[in-house]
Design brief:
Layout lengths: L8 E2 L3 E4 L6 H9 L16 H13 L8 E6 L6 E11 L4 E8 L8 H17 L3 E6 L4 H9 L3 E12 L2 E11 H7 L1
Parallel strand pairs: 5-6
Antiparallel strand pairs: 1-2, 2-3, 3-4, 4-5, 6-8, 7-8
Helix pairs in contact: 1-2
Length: 187
C-alpha cells in the first residue's frame, strides 16, 4: 500500500476533510451527544463538548502520519460544518486490508450521505492507496449500516456470533468486504 494520509476528497454533495479542533461544537451538537447515533458504536455518547474537543485533539495530532485516515463528512450546501465522520479504524499492511467505520448525525440519516462518503473512500483506497481488501462490519440489529456497505459494493460474508461488542453489550458481527479485483471488474 502507498499510504497517503487523510487527503481532502470531494463528491457531488460532500467534502471529506481533516477535522480541526474548531469542529468540536459541531461534532458534539450534530452527532456525538446523541445516544441513538452511538447506540451500536463502541464509544459512548459525549456528555460535554469538552469530550468532543479531547477526541478531536487526539485525532488531529495523528494527521502527520501517512497511514492515518480520519475524515469529517461535510455537506457542500452547509458550508464546512461536519455532520459525521468516516475513517479507517483498523488496517493490516501485510494483507493490504483496511476496515472502515462511520457515523453520521440522525438528521442526515436515510439521505444517501453515508453511502456517498463510503463510495468516495472505496475509490480513494483502491485507486490511490492500493489496498487489496476493504471491509466493514455492523451489529445485525442495525441493518441500515449493512445497506450502506452493500450499496458501495461490499458483499456480505457472514455473521460471527457474539464476536463483537458495542454500547448494547456483546453482539453478533455481520462482516462485509470487497476486493480490489471485484472493484476493478465492477467499474
Amino acid at each position: 500500500m502507498k499510504h497517503l494520509g487523510t487527503k481532502r476528497l470531494e463528491t457531488d454533495r460532500l467534502v471529506l476533510r481533516r477535522f480541526a479542533i474548531e469542529d468540536a461544537d459541531a461534532m458534539f451538537n450534530n452527532w456525538a451527544n446523541d445516544s441513538e447515533v452511538t447506540k451500536y458504536l463502541m464509544w459512548p455518547f459525549h456528555k460535554s463538548v469538552e469530550i468532543s474537543r479531547n477526541v478531536l485533539s487526539d485525532w488531529t495530532s495523528q494527521y502527520a502520519k501517512d497511514d492515518y485516515y480520519q475524515w469529517a463528512i461535510t455537506l457542500k450546501e452547509n458550508g464546512d460544518e461536519p455532520i459525521g465522520s468516516i475513517s479507517v479504524v483498523h488496517k493490516d499492511d501485510d494483507v493490504k486490508m483496511v476496515h472502515i467505520g462511520y457515523c453520521i448525525g440522525k438528521r442526515w440519516w436515510k439521505q444517501g450521505i453515508t453511502s456517498e462518503a463510503l463510495a468516495a473512500l472505496v475509490k480513494f483506497l483502491f485507486e490511490e492507496v492500493g489496498v487489496n481488501r476493504i471491509e466493514s462490519r455492523h451489529d445485525p440489529r442495525n441493518p441500515n449500516s449493512g445497506k450502506v456497505m452493500v450499496k458501495c459494493g461490499l458483499k456480505y460474508e457472514g455473521t460471527l456470533r457474539e464476536a463483537d461488542w458495542n454500547n448494547q453489550g456483546i453482539c453478533d458481527s455481520a462482516i462485509y468486504g470487497i476486493l480490489a479485483k471485484e472493484y476493478k471488474t465492477a467499474k
